[in-house]
Design brief:
Elements lengths: L8 H9 L12 H17 L5 E3 L8 H5 L5 E3 L4 E3 L8 H5 L5 E3 L17 H6 L2
Antiparallel strand pairs: 1-4, 2-3
The site of one iron/sulfur cluster has 13 residues, from helix 4.
Amino acid sequence: MHALMPQTVEDISSMVLEKRSVPLPGSGSPLLGVNGKIASFVLRKIFGTERKRITSDCTHCGICERVCPVNNITVYDDNVSFGDNCADCFACIHWCPEKAIRYGILKVNSKSHYTNPAVCAADIMAQK
Ligand code: SF4
Ligand code: SF4
């Protein structure tokens, strides 16, 4: 195990609760940095994830705005606006109760969305 990694579930739990960050093994390597840039390029330029749009199913409930970890979404009465700060976490897609968010050419169907059954949107919002 990496020297900086927590040893027990209790250690991990306290890290999460205290919002402490620990660099993952190899996270400073140039190769991982290149991989991250390639993954980001593929997502944004090939799958078009930087082109987000909302379907008419949107009810403007505001959940996507409140779960976005980087405050990249603003919900208005008649619109939803995405900024340029997306971290490609896909939280907004998975937590949208109406499945109303589309990213580029990524296909959306009944199996496209998943949320941990032990976690609710309020839990995500409370962590921001
Ligand atoms: S979570 Fe979905 S339904 Fe709610 S405002 Fe965002 S896109 Fe619309
Ligand atoms: S994918 Fe994540 S970071 Fe990007 S807009 Fe959606 S919630 Fe925010």
